[in-house]
Amino acid sequence: MSRRILVLGSDRAIGRCVSTALAADPSIECIVGGHHSGNLAAHKRLQAYAKQIGARVSAANVADGILMREALEGVFAVVNATALGRHSSYALAGQCARHGAHYVDLASSREHVSGIKALDRRAQAAGCLLVTGANVVPAISGALVDSLAHEFDRLDEIHVALSPFDGNQPWFVTMRTLTARIGRPIRVRRNGRWRVAYGWSEPEKVAFPKPVGSMRAYLCDAPDLDLFPHRYRAGTVTFRVGLSRASWSYALAALGRYRRRRYLAEQAQRNPGSVDGRDGFQDLVDKTASIQVRMRGQRDGAEVVHCACLIARNDSGAAIASSPAIALVKRWVRDGVTDPGAVPCLGLLSLEAVKAGLLGHDIVLVRS
Questions:
Q1: Percent of the chain scoring above 90 in pLDDT
Q2: pLDDT computed for residue 264 by the predictor
Q3: Cα dihedral across residues 200, 202, 203, 209: positive or negative
């Protein structure tokens, strides 16, 4: 008996990766939904795509509660691959809980991923599992850390670095995706204490394996900063983003210094980590070219350092971003769900499970 899976956002690159992989599984009946249901041209393209992969098209619209209730009838699980910025809500996850359907989204906002626990009791009562953050962060960054954690008796530092693929994208598009967080206060864990840092500050040179190469990477907000200190008991956790074009990084750093001076006088009235406006971090994560974790700690009384890095070549970043959701849904269909609740996607997938979803793509794993 096949399980019915609804994939929302199948008119976008990551949603297409998810729905294509799920539609190829004979134990899954894949139903696809778009992001802009009112756009006739987009709907026709979605219909053509659904026919190509052997899926059905749903009229589901995340913003329309009535349409969503109808779409959820008989659905085993929902994959939400629509645009998920800081201001995205848990309305769809709540609807899934009411229908007893499992839910996974690909959000990467620190606030959204950490806040899913508010739905934990509701999900447990409904017997369903609601998962957020099934993306490069925190799902894959966490899987990389888990794959190396056994090499340490004590883990002191975790440094995560991401490099997005910009291709031929105009400079102003990349700048626009980042400006929401530049110069804003963020909470980071340093030497066992929480302190306030600022977005796109404190650059460090990060050596990504080829073809990405070395670049200056700057502090950024990410769910890892909240989740990793608790899960791994590391005293220091950082998250940085590096751009392939140094001139863009320098321009953003200058903007960050200007904003920091502007907001220092208001810092006492602000909640560190709060962000106004559109969150462009999701766009960066969805276009990941490389994700690296570097860990420092103790083993047999000696200091050791280990590093693991996933590299997407030939614009294969969407495959990295979509692989956690694909792996989760396939496991739910195959094995069922035994532990209901509402949780971030951390510790739910091993690196081996993620790698299984990357077969056929030009993606390599480098360890040192």
A1: 60
A2: 53
A3: negative
Q: How many helices (H) and strands (E) does the chain have?
A: 13, 16
Q: Which two tokens stand for residue 347?
A: 């510790």
296 φ, ψ (degrees, to nearest 5): -125, 140
pLDDT beneath 70, residues of the chain = 36-38, 62-66, 83-88, 166-181, 245-256, 258-280
CATH topology of domain 137-312: Dihydrodipicolinate Reductase; domain 2 (3.30.360)
Domain with CATH 3.30.360.10 in the chain: 137-312
For the segment 84-94, what is each residue's pLDDT rounded down to a tens digit?
665 568 999 99
Predicted confidence at residue 153, as pLDDT, reads 97
Which residues, at least 6 apart from 19, have a Cβ–Cβ distance to it below 8 Å? 7, 10, 30, 32, 53, 55, 79
pTM metric for this prediction: 0.89
Range 3-135+319-350 classified under CATH 3.40.190.10: no
Alpha helices in the chain (DSSP H): 13-23, 40-53, 65-71, 91-99, 110-115, 120-126, 141-149, 171-178, 224-232, 246-264, 281-286, 317-335, 351-356
| Helix (H/G/I), strand (E/B), else coil: 262 | helix
* Edge-to-edge strand list for the sheet holding 56-57: 56-57, 28-33, 3-8, 77-80, 102-105, 129-132, 341-344
**pLDDT for residue 257:** 72
CATH 3.40.50.720 residue window(s) in the chain: 3-135+319-350
Angle of helix 40-53 versus helix 13-23 axis, rounded to 10: 30
